[in-house]
Amino acid sequence: MKKEVLILLSVLAGVSLQAQEAGRQADSLRHVFGRQQVQHAVRQSTPYADTLDTGNPGVKVVLYNNGTYRYVKDPVLVAADSVFTECWDTRTVNPYREQPDPIPDRFSIWVVDSLDSYTCPYVVHPRSLFGYRHGRRHQGIDLPYPTGTPVPAAFDGRVRISDYVGGYGNLVVIRHANGLETFYGHLSKRNVQSGDWVSAGDIIGLGGSTGRSTGPHLHFETRYKGAAFDPSWLIDFETGTLRHRLLKVRSWYFNPNQRYVQSVDDEDEIFRTDEEDRLLAEEQAKKEAAARAAAEAAAMRYHTVRSGDTLSSIARKYRTSVREICRLNGIKEITVLQIGKRLRVR
Fold this sequence. Notes:
This protein is an alpha+beta fold. It contains six helices and 21 strands. The N and C termini lie far apart (64 Å).
């Protein structure tokens, strides 16, 4: 019986180790896939012939008339998701203002996976960047955009705002299933209404110069739960590339002075897993402890007792106290000093 129990425990331990290893491999693949860049990932516009169920109730298979197929999310379940029902306001720019949730120090957002699509709003060198401009906070970037030029939705989602809103002029705000919202301001025309569902690449309006604008351009913002961050963390507008499928967000992204700065070291830091962070923190703590020990050792000083030395005279010589010398050497003030004995004085 004991032998059978030991065999069973051994098998279970092996299964556990295999599961852990599989989890590590899956996490590694997840981050590798998440780091992949995306040029464009637009859904097919071919008319579809049929829709089939899959083992996942949230995913369907769409069969197109041209013989191709694609996995898509079930629109009924997507529409019922809390991201499209909570804090849903078709007039207020920031509907989270009344119920602000604290933003974690670090979290991940899947921007594009195998079921989502992406289109760069416009491939151009941005004219006005995220941050403060003329003493006012500029919560997005400005893309030179000729009046009348079609403006595509960057990602799949649902239109929350389609209205004329103050300095934005004609504004379209789209909320996406991952909680992100994208803003498209200064439009000359809006082609969508609040509540419309759009796919990446759908034309939501035309470029213009409405609202507080000094010329034709597209004001583009990215926000998460009402908090704006530099869209350049997400999109390279000069190439039209989505920088990562998986956006690893840090709380300091939402600092109005924090613009995107390309750095290999930063990218490695952003995509580290929690386990890698823990190991790095332990390694850093060991290095700091070793550095402190080395500094302390370097600062140590010793005195060899000579004839006529007293604790008081030694303390005066090294500008310390008798009490400190006693503490460092584990002796008392009445201890008789022996000639030749080494005393630590620092």
